[in-house]
Amino acid sequence: RAPKVAVEPSRRSSTRQQRPSHEKSLRKPRPAQSTPSFGLKPDRLLEGLPAVATDFDAPALQAAILDSQRNGQKFRQFSLRAVQAGVQGYYAFLRGQRVVYLGRQGELHTEWFPGARPKAG
Q1: pLDDT tens digit string along 23-38?
Q2: At what angle do helices 58-71 and 75-84 cross, to 10 degrees?
């Protein structure tokens, strides 16, 4: 019998097959440690919301926005009201000081941050 030889850890890892670099990018990213949970697990924050309404209701969306600004409405409740108002997504432009809400049929609603105004152009 041949005596057992200890293998150094660095050599042990080199015997494993390395993944090609393009496969490394397919890994699921870990959530950031500072992500707010709003009292729920991040993957369950929007779980159970109804389907987005077919028709876009800008006055209902504006009421939900005002409720958040004035009364501190929770994000989940705002999301529920936005979905019921026909919002399928939104873009927040921090430098542009506005949020653009999108409806299912191409509708857009721009909400300016409090105190912000469109530039005269």
Answers
A1: 555 656 655 555 454 5
A2: 170
